[in-house]
Amino acid sequence: MTRDAVATVRPIYRAGLAAAAIVAVVVVALTAPTSEMNMSNRWLPTALRVFAVLVYAAVVAVHVWHLRAGARAERAWHSIHVLMALGMIAMYAPNGQAVVSAQLAKLVFTAATAATLLYIAAVLIRGQRLGWLWVAAAADLAAMVYMFALPVSGFGWLTALLVGWAVLQALGWLTGVLPAHADLGSPQPGCLTSTGSSRREISVRVTLAAMSLGMAYMFLAMTFGMSAMPATPMRGM
Hints:
mainly alpha; disordered C terminus
């Protein structure tokens, strides 16, 4: 196969792998057996869970697509949101044992948070400019750790703070207040801009708003809906 043919086939191959992975995650999330413990949360009926899984699958698809282009920092930023969307699919999955265990999810998101903070520190040490969206991404990853650790008594104030944080982010994405790129320094040619109206930017804004609103709702559901659940150790939502 010639080099030009390989260059043509490679993006199609990658897109096919990404689509297969997304379909696999959705199928597992929607077809795994349901338990009384998981479904007793009155804030999370089956229909809502299914809808949320489909929405987050779309979030994964959009950000995997954006991984195809852009600077390395931009691709890393999209990777963070792919990971978070997969975590939210695990949280909303209408099954008893969840797609992954809560312990494994906490470990993964703790590692992702630490890696993001180390990256931020390395960039600042080199004297490069770093958009604050990287700090927000680290905070969101830490919020995922907290979400998989719930229920935790005595931290209602933190849950309320994270709900407010997520809602404010959603408003920022939808209104254009937040920039739709997270590269180092000024946006490079071809990258998204905060004032552009391209379909690429719209897709980023809509999916990140959906991500934030879904996180806010899950925090509320785990705070106010858990009271109806039996006192059984949670192995993951």
